[in-house]
């Protein structure tokens, strides 16, 4: 444009020079002002297809931005924050002892957080492993994408319903989704299917005030939450790596869906709040815009989660302890959901109408889509019931959760009970209660499968505590072991990413059915429908397969518990202490377990075995028989 202007003024008069200069300045100003500053870092990082792009210059620039962001923040905020901390400590010195202690603790906590948030620390190994885990465990998995998409209507609509009607919130959410998709589609034109692109928040698809609201949310880092990863990759000169390109392609769909959720949530919240405040008629247009944009940011943060390091609990920050970024991966969502539920519960109990409506909405959506097992209160209730059962005299009773499912099945039938317990998807043969629901949100290890027992269950829990990287490593080891045994399908289903492993599991299920580790068939292939196989291939939990694992766990647990109690009763009888009480306990056991009855013959054998065993025990505590007597005699020290 500037060259065109220069050619247009061929004269050499002062007037022509002045006009040309003004036009050049106007063109430059227009160019600068139309650049979306919020995407400048993204644009600099992703200019691979732009003429004149230089990888080395880009790397230096991004490395400078990555490190300087923390340095500049420290320079800008260190003194103001320190002044505030000093003020808190000064107030604390004038308080009574209890108040002074509390304020001092607050100041110390803020000082620690300030240091952690403003300190820049390279974690290249952890960054690489977490990116690998993201692609390997979640990535392009259809089940994960379904779960991610459902988040807006499982959480955002109930949140918006706190201040609006359910109908208005749902309508605004649908419109927000459509507009977000259109915005992302427009932003991605001519970018190529798998290229990242900047989000054009100044698009003509949005009104000016909506553009400003989205920019406000973006400035808080709540729209494209992976932009810092782009800059980090570029800063290390890895933007053209084939591996990084593969990871980028794997996470592409999830990233676009995450951005869609955040934009649609912000638009829906901003529009609803703007309309509500206009009806009240107590604020100016500027005040309405300010309040509505803050509500939009709050809605995104509350329902889509702020995953930034600054928002994390101190013990979850990336530099909290060695390996914290790996161990805490995927746990921020759980911690945030707990905080959100407890905060709204506290306000609801205090009489806050908005919090009451939010909680009611969350319970309703989760009851519909995840069933009663997907409700946030499910796990705590069953945990308390299980503890009560363990404290009881008879710990071989049916597990409380099994008893609950049996009760419903007896009352309303198995199919209706499945829908009530696991949500409406159960009617289609899918069990999404743990994927869409919050039933395990209060569990320290919510993703450990329930079909394990004993040491295997303990090992799985330890791995889950240590983060997904350890679990993924365990899968790879199992895969190598299966590969060495010639079990190629089993091996690759453990060693490949989830979105590739699940189709292999589906193929095996269609050919062999559901089998044990030893290869024994538990559910024949003929008993699996086409829908079951498709769900397995998509990573969607099949109701039939999940119920098999639940049946197997409950069966083995009941059998082990009954065997343990029977053994204890036989030992008590053999000891001879309180025979009437033991006899009564045995009768009750026989009534509970007719097929495992303890007969007089069993009691006589137990008593005889106790006497026989005691005869062979020396005063030194050795169990000595006729054939090994010489070895005991060799011990004379």
Would you kindly provide a brief summary of this structure?
By secondary structure, the chain is mostly helical.
How many β-strand stretches?
A: 2
Averaged pLDDT: 82
- The parts where pLDDT drops under 50 for at least 5 residues are none
Structural class: mainly alpha
Q: Radius of gyration, Cα only, in angstroms?
A: 32 Å
Name the helix and strand elements from N-terminus to C-terminus, one letter apiece.
Answer: HHHHHHHHHHHHHHHHHHHHHHHEEHHHHH
Largest sheet: 2 strands, antiparallel
Morphology: elongated
Number of helices: 28
Q: Which strand order does the major sheet show?
A: 1-2
Query: Share of helix among residues?
Result: 55-70%
Distance between the termini: 103 Å
List descriptors.
28 helices; 69% helix; mainly alpha
What's the helix and strand layout?
Blueprint: H1 2-8, H2 14-34, H3 40-45, H4 55-93, H5 97-118, H6 124-138, H7 142-160, H8 166-187, H9 208-219, H10 227-235, H11 242-280, H12 285-304, H13 324-327, H14 332-349, H15 353-370, H16 378-391, H17 400-412, H18 414-422, H19 433-436, H20 454-465, H21 468-484, H22 488-495, H23 498-512, E1 514-515, E2 521-523, H24 530-538, H25 543-575, H26 579-592, H27 600-615, H28 629-633
Helix pairs in contact: 4-5, 4-10, 7-8, 7-11, 7-12, 7-15, 8-11, 9-11, 9-12, 11-12, 14-15, 17-18, 21-22, 22-23, 23-24, 25-26, 25-27
């Amino acid at each position: 444009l500037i060259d065109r202007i220069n050619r247009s003024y061929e004269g050499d008069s002062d007037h022509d020079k002045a006009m040309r200069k003004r036009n050049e300045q106007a063109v430059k100003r227009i160019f600068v002002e139309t650049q979306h500053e919020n995407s400048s870092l993204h644009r600099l990082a992703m200019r691979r297809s732009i003429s004149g792009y230089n990888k080395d210059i880009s790397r230096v620039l991004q490395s400078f931005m990555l490190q300087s962001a923390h340095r500049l923040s420290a320079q800008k905020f260190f003194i103001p924050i320190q002044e505030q901390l000093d003020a808190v400590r000064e107030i604390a010195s004038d308080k009574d002892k209890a108040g002074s202690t509390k304020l001092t603790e607050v100041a110390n906590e803020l000082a620690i957080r300030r240091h952690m948030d403003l300190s820049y620390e390279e974690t290249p190994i952890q960054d690489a492993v977490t990116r690998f885990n993201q692609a390997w465990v979640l990535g392009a998995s259809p089940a994960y994408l379904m779960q991610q998409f459902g988040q807006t209507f499982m959480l955002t609509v109930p949140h918006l319903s706190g201040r609006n009607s359910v109908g208005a919130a749902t309508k605004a959410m649908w419109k927000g989704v459509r507009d977000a998709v259109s915005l992302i589609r427009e932003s991605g034109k001519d970018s190529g299917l798998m290229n990242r692109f900047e989000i054009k928040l100044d698009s003509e698809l949005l009104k000016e005030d909506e553009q400003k609201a989205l920019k406000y949310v973006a400035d808080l880092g709540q729209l494209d939450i992976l932009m810092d990863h782009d800059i980090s990759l570029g800063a290390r000169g890895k933007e053209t790596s084939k591996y990084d390109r593969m990871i980028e392609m794997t996470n592409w769909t999830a990233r676009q869906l995450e951005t869609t959720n955040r934009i649609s949530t912000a638009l829906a919240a901003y529009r609803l709040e703007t309309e509500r405040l206009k009806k009240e008629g107590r604020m100016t247009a500027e005040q309405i815009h300010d309040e509505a944009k803050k509500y939009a940011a709050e809605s995104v943060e509350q329902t889509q989660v702020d995953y930034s390091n600054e928002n994390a609990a101190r013990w979850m920050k990336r530099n909290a302890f060695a390996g914290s970024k790996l161990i805490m991966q995927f746990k921020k969502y759980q911690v945030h959901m707990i905080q959100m539920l407890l905060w709204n519960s506290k306000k609801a109990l205090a009489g806050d109408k908005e919090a009451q409506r939010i909680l009611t909405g969350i319970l309703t959506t989760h009851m519909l889509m995840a069933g009663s097992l997907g409700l946030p209160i499910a796990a705590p209730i069953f945990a308390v019931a299980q503890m009560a059962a363990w404290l009881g005299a008879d710990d071989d009773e049916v597990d409380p959760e099994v008893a609950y499912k049996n009760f419903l099945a007896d009352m309303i039938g198995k199919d209706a009970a499945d829908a009530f317990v696991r949500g409406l998807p159960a009617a289609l043969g899918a069990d999404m209660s743990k994927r869409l629901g919050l039933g395990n949100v209060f569990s320290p290890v919510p993703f450990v499968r329930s079909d394990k027992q004993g040491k295997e269950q303990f090992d799985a829990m330890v791995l889950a505590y240590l983060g997904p990287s350890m679990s993924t490593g365990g899968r790879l080891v199992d895969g190598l072991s299966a590969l060495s045994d010639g079990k190629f399908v089993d091996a690759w289903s453990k060693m490949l990413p989830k979105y590739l492993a699940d189709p292999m599991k589906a193929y095996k299920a269609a050919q062999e059915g559901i089998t044990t580790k030893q290869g024994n068939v538990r559910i024949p292939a003929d008993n699996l429908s086409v829908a079951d196989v498709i769900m397995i291939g998509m990573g969607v939990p099949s109701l039939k397969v999940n119920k098999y694992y639940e049946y197997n766990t409950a069966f083995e647990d009941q059998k082990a518990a009954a065997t343990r109690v029977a053994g204890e009763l036989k030992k008590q009888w053999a000891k001879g202490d309180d025979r009437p009480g033991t006899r009564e306990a045995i009768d009750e056991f026989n009534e509970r377990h007719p097929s495992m009855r303890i007969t007089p013959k069993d009691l006589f054998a137990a008593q005889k075995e106790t006497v026989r065993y005691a005869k062979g025990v020396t005063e030194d505590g050795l169990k000595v028989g006729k054939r090994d007597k010489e070895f005991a005699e060799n011990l004379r020290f």
